Amino acid sequence: MIDLSVPQRQSPLAIVFLGLRILRSLGIAQIVVVVLFILRAPFNGALSVLPFVIIVFFSGFSALAWWRYTFQVLDDELVVTKGILRVVCLNVPIERIQSIVIEQQLLHRLTGLVKVAVDTAGSNEAEFSIDAVTRPVAEELQRRAVTAVPIPVKIGGALPPPVLAPDRVVFTHDGRRLLAMALTMWPLAGLLVLGPLLAFGSDLFNQLPDVGLGDQPFRWWWVPVGIAGFIVFSIVLNITRVFLQDWELSLRASATSLQRTSGLLSKTSTASNVNRIQMVTSTQNPLQRRAGLRGIELATVGQRNLSVDGCDDAQFTTVLSLAAVTPIGEMFLSRRIHPAAIWLAVRNTAVACALLTGPLFWLVGWWSLLVLSSIPLVWATTRLNVSNFRWGLGQQLASASHVFSWRTEQALLHKTNAITVTQSIFERRRGLGRVQLSTASGVISIGMIPIEEAHAARDTILHAVETDTRPWI
Amino acid sequence: MTGLFSNEPIPTDQLPQLADNAFVPVDPRYLRVSLVGLALTAAVITTGTVALATQSNWSLLVLLTGSAALVLLLLVAVLRVFEIRRLAYQLREHDLSLRSGVISHRVESLPFSRVQHVNIHRGPIERSLGLATLQVSTAGPNISIPGLSRADAEQIKLLVTERADAVVDNDPSLPMPRRPPTG
Question: Which residues on chain B place their C-beta less than 8 Å from a C-beta of chain A?
């Protein structure tokens, strides 16, 4: 048992990470100036030791920063003390910690250490991170945070004390499941990995070897071969990415928390208290539907959501029950949206096309009329959406939609932070409206419904918020 | 009362409803605050247009662009007049609602039990007219009520924080302060 009430210091390896962080905080331009100064400046005589002085000073500064950085848990507060000249003491109540992410990058793996990122709801980024500690210390910190019970709202009497169950592994994805996961993603999803390369622009293409295609006349079969090549390349990239990121993807659960762990080179473990889950979203593209798999995202307050891809139906139901959300059935989702949504989408598209076609005609001539082809496309997709969209309101607000992919969204009513009813001119003329439930992490919006239903939904949700005593965060 | 949580279904027509006629409009002087900002923008556009026109030998393109921007600003000003007429809030025992929007009507409701913090903002023009903007924040979206008199803003701030505390302290029966006066 690790005693976190005693001030803990990070592993000395943290000096490297702290050094890198200080370097990053200087800014790219400043770093470039310093490096160029060290490399290019004509140092003579006594000045020749200047680069060494800078390096020694920087290393000493990083080491001092490591020495001054301590953390401990005192009276259910995580207390972090850091800073050399300006000492900062950060007190975070344990029950306010939204998630603790344990990450193991390559350098960590070589040394058997982990990085801990602590996130509260106070900002969009992790509040602070502990760069290098041993795994038992990190896991003890994570255990303390996710088992901390938030103060419940006490309308109508006391709540029974929570029952703490031992951790159990809910499921682990094996290599076969990961392969199925990678193969059922959108074929070009893997190319996203190459996104950062776009920053190099045309310089990158100039570096590619010239295969002499430019000298030959255009052949029609280049197009399908090129597209097929791109898709195969993307699938290979996708498989590599999935195996690196999601290797041994497992979900562990206790009565109060969920923990997701995965990674091959860099192992990441994200844990969150069940009460902090605000919304549950599931997505399924046609390939995933064929394979019986789906992706689930549990939106938690703070920086990191718990997302688990490649779940089969049984796993989906288990995850929902662990998140205290009941699976939505066909009977519950009986309400539909008004078909006027089709006319609105077509009208808006037609207006946009009319405005676009004129200027485009001057640029590309009659080809500009191709823009008009989007009108039947929008008509068909909106029609499909209107006929497939279902929503329901019980102890939760839930919706299910399907155009190309299947998507469900669910939020328990007592998670509501604000509820909005809006009516555009189009909706007002037809007695329709939109109800939008905002949680601390995500929004469910149902539009094109009778305004009376929207008002009734708002009153029901506000009533549930005031009477439901379960903790919402 | 056993003290345990229960959640029996309630017909929606028996639920307390947000009455449309119980909304309190914001102070009409807020229109002046809003129009002063637009007037300043108009002054900048006019000065810029005249400066550019003199440089370009009173080019028709510059004059047309400047005039179009001023006409657009005028339309925004007209829209703002209607917007502020519709801008109103409603305080109930357990929640705060804000009605806004002209083209798209919008009613946003925020339960007191979800309020994280409340603050009052007073810009220089608002200060000169004795007005204030109340900002109510939750862990999710926030509500901003402009055009309140300073006393009303302080009182609503007190009410919201007291009501939020009352929910946590198991005292939902806290008396409501008087409804803020209109105008």
Answer: 1-5, 7, 10, 12, 15-18, 94-95, 101, 103-111, 113-114, 138-141, 143, 167-168, 170, 172
pTM of the shown model: 0.75
Q: What is the rounded distance in angstroms from the CA atom of residue A349 to the CA atom of residue B127?
A: 45
ipTM rounded to 2 decimals: 0.82
Nearest to A447 by CA among A427, A429, A433: A433
Other Cβ atoms closer than 10 A to A120: 19
Distances from the Cα of A152 to the Cα of A155, A156, A159, A389, B170, angstroms: 9, 11, 8, 35, 10
Return the closest-CA partner of residue A432 out of A334, A354, A343, A364.
A343
Could you tell me the two tokens for A325? 């959300």
Q: How far apart are CA A71 and CA A78, in angstroms?
A: 7
Q: B140 near B129, Cβ under 8 Å?
A: no
Answer whether A418 sits within 8 Å of B106, measured CB to CB. Answer: no
CA dihedral A462, B1, A278, A313 (to 10 degrees): -120
A415-434 residue pLDDT tens: 999 999 999 999 999 999 99
Average pLDDT, chain A: 83
Share of chain A above pLDDT 90, in %: 34
Rounded (5°) CA angle A212-A214-A220: 105
Among B114, B145, B170, B174, which would you mutate to test the A interface (most chain A Cβ atoms within 10 Å of its Cβ)? B114
- Determine how many CB atoms are found less than 10 A away from the CB of residue A214: 6
What does the DSSP 8-state code read for residue A12?
T
